[in-house]
Write a structure and sequence with these properties.
alpha/beta; six-stranded mixed beta sheet; 6 strands
Length: 239
């Protein structure tokens, strides 16, 4: 049996300010660091070996993973990839969510934020937030860097990466830890739990609360559960 542990990074500074963050490389808040530490303690309580770990190019996910590995006395080696970056929020990047909702209306706001295949307007190429992106992004081919994304677009980069780079370790009965983002993890959960395009907007991924997925030898999901029971969210399966 192999385990896949999915952790959304702890609260970031822009999460705390209720701003669209996307690809902006914002650090963890103090609360986020505590959430990362709690995640590490919860994972340590499982008393299992973490064989391989993955994260994005964004420091809030990298720091969360680093704290978890330190809490588990593990070597600080991990695989970082832009393919599991947060969704790119286009021209919404940096805006306050509540103010944006009032400006564009709740219906359009919900479409941009939670729909499957609707993207916000693209970010302009001279947008000031471009300078706040991760320096690691310089390794991404320019023709692959988006100016906006829907959840579907995010899915279309996350899932090929999962299939090529992560799944092979699960097949070898390894335990995998992934520290990523609300939307990249929503995309992966959509795939793993076979959630429909219509239902995926209902899936919430809490910050700093590891989700453990147990697979059998054929990579069929046997069980799944959040480690912090008080902060768990419903997982939609095959809907």
């Amino acid at each position: 049996m192999s385990k896949l542990i999915l952790t959304r990074h702890g609260e970031s500074l822009w999460n705390a300010e209720n701003r669209f963050t996307g690809w902006v490389d914002i650090d963890l808040s103090d609360k986020g660091v505590l959430e990362a530490q709690k995640s590490g303690e919860l994972i340590k309580s499982l008393n299992l070996k973490i064989d391989v770990s993955f994260t994005s190019f964004l420091k809030r996910a990298i720091k969360t993973l680093t704290v978890i590995l330190q809490k588990n006395n593990l070597e600080l080696k991990f695989n970082a990839s832009w393919q599991i970056n947060e969704r790119h929020y286009g021209s919404l990047t940096g805006l306050n969510k509540e103010q944006t909702k009032k400006k564009i209306g709740e219906e359009q706001f919900k479409k941009y934020r939670r729909s499957w295949d609707i993207s916000p307007p693209p970010m302009s190429e001279n947008d000031k937030n471009q300078s706040l992106f991760s320096p690691l992004n310089s390794s991404i081919p320019k023709d692959m860097i988006p100016l906006t994304e829907s959840l579907k677009d995010t899915y279309n980069r996350v899932i090929p990466y999962y299939e090529k780079e992560i799944k092979k370790y699960l097949k070898k009965n390894k335990n995998i830890l992934v520290s990523a983002h609300g939307n990249s993890l929503r995309a992966l959960c959509k795939y793993l739990f076979k959630i429909s395009d219509e239902k995926i907007n209902d899936l919430e991924i809490p910050t700093g609360n590891p989700l453990v997925i147990d697979f059998d030898e054929s990579l069929k999901i046997e069980k799944y559960y959040y480690l912090d029971k008080e902060r768990k969210k419903e997982i939609i399966f095959n809907q």
